[in-house]
Amino acid sequence: MQAKIQKIVVLGTGGTIAGESNSADEGLSYKAAQRGIEVLLKAVAGSSQKLPPSLANVNFEVEQVAQLDSKDMDFATWRVLAQRCEFWLAQTEVVAVVITHGTDTLEETAFFLSQVLSREKPIVLTCAMRPANFKDADGPQNLRDALNVSAQVKGAGVWLVAAGEIHHSQFVQKVHPTRLNAFDSGEVGAAGKVSQDQIFWAETFNASAILPSISKQVLNAADLPKADEWPWVEIVMNHVQASFKQVDLLVNAGVQGLVVAGTGNGSIGTALKEGLLKAQRAGVRIRIASRCAQGPVLPTEGHIFKVDGGLNAVKTRVAMLLEIMSQRQSH
Ligand code: SIN
Prior knowledge:
The protein has helices spanning about 35-45, 75-90, 105-115, 140-150, 205-210, 245-255, 270-280, 315-330, and strands at about 5-15, 20, 30, 60-70, 95-100, 120-125, 155-160, 165-170, 175, 185, 190-195, 200, 235, 255-260, 285-290, 305. The protein is an alpha/beta fold. The strands form four sheets. It has an eight-stranded mixed beta sheet, sandwiched between helices. The chain has a four-stranded parallel beta sheet with strand order 13-14-15-16, sandwiched between helices. It has a two-stranded antiparallel sheet with strand order 2-3.
């Protein structure tokens, strides 16, 4: 009996993985988001390529959802991306969705998708640090590994595969501006590695044990409002002589939520704290994260504002955006 054909859908959103530079030796000055997803996929799964065994009975479908440098990722694109993921994952023959994305805001998109998708199938994001026409471009190997992982990882979850590492969307963040392995999952570590088409899951990685509960989710992709109806949430940082003035300006301009990238275990200087308390009295939501590169903020009695356990500042902002929108909807 012939094995059932399964489908993996590859969604393109742009990034350096789709970028081009003027010369094959130029890896820093280039234009992101130049090559279409069909071209990127053909480079790794074209007729002449020998694919990993996990992809032997897999057909591919591509869709160009966006074509942008991820520094310009926006709510409108997130909404469409989430809805396209939901659409494809609802098809019985689709086993996974792979997304090509710029590295700069990848962790935000990955975390966002993890909060709004309800299907019990995986999403794997991948990216590159070098443009597609660079002499040692990393994109093709990353895409090949992402396809391979997506065919083997079971159940729901949003993952990043890059530089031979598998990271969970909850923990991963970009930690280096230029090196090839630019991502890290801090103390939790990578969920696994991919080498020569073999996947090695880290024995110590146990996402279900480590994940902090994010109880306020979940808005489903279908319920996401149009981009101009999303709330306004900003991030402010504590630093030497952090002023309350930026908070006052934001509150007067109508901000609805503020995430504080606090110092150390989420501490906030006296002047900034006064400004935030005033903002809270005016109805602005406040959350604490840390500006430290690694490690969760551990809530203590000294925290007068809420802490979203384990999330960095940009993901705390995503959680707050979704919290505000889901509460709006339930009223
Ligand atoms: C981007 O994030 O789109 C550009 C940078 C990159 O992909 O590395």
